[in-house]
Amino acid sequence: MTDSDKDSIMDDKIVTVRNPTDMTGVSPGYRGKVVIGQDRISETDFESLDKSCPTHSFDYDKKTQALSVDHGKCIACDKCRVQSPALIQIKSSFASASKTRAGLVESFDAVTIEKSYDEIGNELKEKIHNLYGRSLAIREVDAGSCNGCEVEITALNNPIYDIERFGIHFVASPRHADLLLVTGPASRNMEVALKRTYDATPNPKLVVAVGACACSGGIFGDTYATTGGIDKIVPVDVYIPGCPPRPQALIYGLLLAINKKLDRKPDP
Amino acid sequence: MESSEYSLAISDKFGDNVKTELINGNEIHIFADNDNIIELCSFVHSGIGCRLLSIICNDERQINGMFVLRYVFGKENGEDIFFVATLRIDGNADGFPTLTQHIPSASLYEREIKDMFGLIPKGSHDQRPLLLHSWPEDSHPLRKDFDIKTKVPKSKEEYQFLKVTGDGVCEIPVGPVHAGIIEPGHFRFSTLGESIINLETRLFYTHKGVEKLAEQMPMEDVVLLSERIAGDESVANSTALCQAIEKIAKAKIPKKAAQTRTTCAEMERIYNHLGTLAGLSTDAGFAFGAARLNILKEKMMNLNEKISGSRILFGVNRIGGVKIDLTDVNKTMILSETESLGNEFYKILEFLRKKSSFIDRLKNTGTITKEDAVGFGIVGVAARCVGVDVDTRKDHPYASYPSLHLDKHHDTPYQKMKYEVEMQKRNGDALSRFMLRAEEIQNSIMLIQQTLRDLDNTQPIWCDVGPLEPHLHALGYSESHRGQTMHWVMVGKNNSIYRYKIRTASFCNWKIIEQAVLNDIVADFPIVNKSLDLSYSGNDL
Question: pTM of this prediction?
Answer without folding.
Answer: 0.92
